[in-house]
Design goal:
The protein is mostly beta strands. It is built from no helices and eleven strands. Helices cover about 0% and strands about 50% of the residues. The strands form two sheets. Strands 2, 4, 5, 6, 9, 10 and 11 form a seven-stranded mixed beta sheet that branches. Strands 1-3-8-7 form a four-stranded antiparallel beta sheet, with no helix packed on it. Strand 4 (about 30-40) and strand 5 (about 45-50) form a beta hairpin. The N and C termini lie far apart (about 35 Å).
């Protein structure tokens, strides 16, 4: 896979953003996919993942009920729908594809601020 993330930006608290991550090689269907984030001055940590069929999802406690991960293998794309955004969601967001190793996309900046 070769992942390219997009969709970040500046949004007010309570707003929404949708991140996208495209695999330019077209092998995404055989990977578990996930999103991670790295807040300013902190380590990267897990946000959400979904299995190869998209039928199973898991979220960190801090985003459960507000974020939704999905995948469209026909478009070789992973999505992260982020609703009810909070200032503490401010971070660089990274997509990842996992099989025998983790492949990372470049990050996209999300800033939640009034």
């Amino acid at each position: 896979v070769q992942l390219q993330a997009s969709g970040g930006g500046v949004v007010q608290p309570g707003g929404s953003l949708r991140l996208s991550c495209v695999d330019s090689i077209g092998a995404l269907s055989s990977y578990v996919v996930a999103w991670f984030r790295q807040p300013p001055g902190k380590e990267r940590h897990f946000v959400a993942y979904t299995g190869r069929t998209g039928g199973f999802t898991s979220y960190s406690d801090s985003v459960r009920g507000r974020f939704t991960i999905s995948r469209d293998d026909a478009k070789n794309t992973i999505y992260l729908q982020m609703d009810s955004l909070k200032p503490e969601d401010t971070a660089v967001y990274y997509c990842a594809a996992v099989r025998t190793a983790i492949s990372w996309g470049q990050g996209t900046q999300v800033t939640v601020s009034s």
